[in-house]
TrEMBL record:
GO terms for biological process: riboflavin biosynthetic process. InterPro entries: Creatininase-like_sf, Creatininase/forma_Hydrolase. It holds the Pfam family Creatininase. Its cofactor is Zn(2+). This is Creatininase. It comes from Primorskyibacter flagellatus. Keywords: Hydrolase, Metal-binding, Zinc. The keyword Hydrolase applies. One of its GO terms (molecular function) is metal ion binding. The keyword DNA repair does not apply. Transmembrane segments: none annotated.
Amino acid sequence: MNWRDVEAAAARDPRCILPLGSTEQHAQLSLCVDAILAERVAVEAAEPLGVPVFPVMPFGLAPYFAAYPGTMTLRVETLLAVFRDLVASARRSGFRRILIVNGHGGNNPVGALAQELMTEYGDISVKFHNWWNAPKTWAVGQSIDKTGLHANWMENFPWTRLDHAPAPEGEKPMVDLGLMKAMPPAEVKELLGDGSFGALWQRPDEDMLKIWATGVEETRAALDGPWPELRP
């Protein structure tokens, strides 16, 4: 799209999507898992509705993985400042119903920012949508396997894998997540090893595609509404 396309899109429909991801270790999977999934689920959800999806914000909050090469983490205040500016930019472009599609649990402070921005502007509605643990999507994943966690089978989709780095065979013992959260990055790396939190590294693609289809459908439902009526 060029700027005139965006101007026309906002004139006919006040909705847009801002995807949010992270660039961080995901064991043998791509560093960009969270960014890939957030953007892809947003695009597939929005396409039938003709709603614009802006490029994914690829960096988020991942300080606990800072000892892993390739992990790029922002300060909390930096990420909040970026999203404050992005929402303001979308508003200036004419969008009043803004869906933030998030692919990384560490980014949840942006959800609180969304509430703050609505008090500040008053003429926008901002939804913060964690696509992978929205109720229906999470329920499908839990019905398949209750062990879905960071960098294990739950994030192992055909489009997050690397051809040169196949998943290990078997199952990894689960780590103590409470202990991990109390550790500085070097100790986190020592505890996690490859980076997975535990359980299976990969499940059949049939299972993953069921989760994905529900995630797209539920993201589309969040985009579709209901949205509140807004003052001019």
